[in-house]
Amino acid sequence: MPTTRRYPPWLLITAGSAIIITTYLFLVVWQPESLVGGAGVGPAALIALAGYLIGSGLIIAGAMARMPTSTVTLLPIAIAINIVAGQINNMVGLPLYLDSIGTVLVGLLAGPAAGAATGALSNVIWGISISPASLPYSTTQVVIGLLAGVFARWGWTRRVPTAVAAGVATGVVAAFVSGPISAFIFGGANASAGRSAIVAVFQTLGLDTLGASIAQGLTVDPLDKSIAFLVAVIILRALPSRFSQRFPFAREHSVFAPRSASVLARARDVDVLAGADRASVSASIAATAPAATSAAANGQDGDGSGAAPSASGTDTTQDEEGGRL
């Protein structure tokens, strides 16, 4: 019976990342004619759409293959948070996104790969079901989830100020990633009226479509992602600590606890293990104690010399002999 050949997860993630990076460099460095002409459609749009979606799909496939059950059960909740918050924001017309809170939440709990997969899946489902314009931005969500896990691993989420700083840094990177998508696929237009107005302002200042889209991202994304990090940290800290301890990544890297606390916890674990060893030794001594006690009661030691055993495990005769020597 032929066996199905499965590619290792790291190979899929690496291939997806390489495709996304190549697509980004092609669009930004070479700047196809369709972008220069300001059409917003054409070969550049197709290349951007295909490159970003194929790359995101490979990352999703690679990340899902190594997800534990606890993370998989969290994905529907995180995706729902992303879609509901993002859709409400677009309907209200705020110049924000608010569609990455669930992505950041999973990235903090389960690591970079899980965060990237959550972000990509959110925009794919959102684009297929409600808002097709969200589909190409799955690449941006991949980067947000990836960086959320990286900053959590570095310990930036243990304190609120550093968590907000991580959100600002993530927003800057997200602006440079999403700028070409807005420019090449949508001609600088946005699903939110507030964000479209910001792009229009930068265009009136003399920036081209790509420059105005990146400038709009740099204006909005740092604030938006800092809000996402702050809300995710507040939610996770409000939950019982045993919830975050269910996730190996959060437990191993002490995502929400000071490193010293983690060290103390490990020290307690070592002490418990040592206590278990001591208990086994005590049990062994207790098992042999009745025989020694009986021998002592009879006035004899184990070899019949009549000397009482000492606390050091040697008989008094030996101690006395040692003293004389």
UniProtKB/TrEMBL annotation:
The chain crosses the membrane at residues 7-30, 42-65, 77-98, 104-128, 135-156, 162-186. One of its GO terms (molecular function) is kinase activity. Keywords: Kinase, Membrane, Transferase, Transmembrane, Transmembrane helix. Gene3D superfamilies: 1.10.1760.20. Residues 306-316 have a biased composition (Low complexity). Signal peptide: none annotated. It comes from the Bacteria. Residues 292-325 are annotated as: Disordered. This is Histidine kinase.
